[in-house]
Amino acid sequence: MISITIGLLLLAGITTLIAQQSSARAEIDKSGRQIENGRYALTLLQDDIQHAGFYGQYSGAITTLAALPDPCATDLATIDASLAMPLQGYDAPTTVPAPLSACLLDANHIAGTDILVVRRLEATDTLTTIAGAVAGQVYVQTTPDGKVTGSGSDTTVFTLTQKDATTAAELRKYVEHIYFLSPCNVYATGATSCTSAADGGSPVPTLKRLEITSTAGTTAFTTTPLVDGIQNMQFDYGIDSALLGPTDTGTPNFPFVTAPGITDWPNVMAVQVNLLARNVDPSVGYIDTKTYNLGVAGTVGPFSDAYKRHAYTAAVRAVNPSGRRE
């Protein structure tokens, strides 16, 4: 009986140790996934912001706009005019404002989180040939002093040539990304927006983007989930307000702001990205009592729930707009 008792005590101790190790391992896995997601989301945004305003060979002036362009527009005239605004944002809207609401439903956006629009051309060494243009896809043909915006549905508009006046000028796909946070990753079966049944009944906040593309030969926006577990996103914009001229440096010369005016958007030369990532799964026995700094927007929290979180911040230079001013 003594031997049995000692054996049971040892077995209980080993069982407790294994259970604790398993729990610790699970927490390490959760933290590792959260760190990976936060850094990956930050990298995605950094890369796209750095490429904003890349318009191939074109280096001429673009007519400024009197109003924010429609980010959901698919007509060539509006897209061509919107090239004047490589970066465009919406500051923590409670409801998705028009005209953006035409392609982004309220149910698919986390209220109070920022939305960012990035416009550029595809940065690749392998250029599209006119013969290889896809119907419904938007392209921009450029030379150092000229540009033509058109579609693969009608390639006759791409008439620009290189210096030899014979070879067609380079043709690049137009890229427009609308970054936003969604309350869920995968919709419930048959649903077209986030509901309580999404993600198997436990909706996970997710960084997504709308991408302009060709769908069955028609220009349209499609939604692409990027990174799950991103709960909050705030952008601060650095504006170079100096007049264009020999002394202009392309460097923001006053503090970052959350909501630039219509005349300020073409002068945004840097973006501070502030993200809050949380574990996808809760941690038993943990209560989040922390607050998190998200830049000019201030702090959020405490959330008083069982999810562990971490804030990520990076200042990103808009290389192309600022480079043209240097």
TrEMBL record:
Pfam families: PilW. InterPro entries: PilW. GO terms for biological process: type IV pilus assembly. This is Type IV pilus assembly protein PilW.
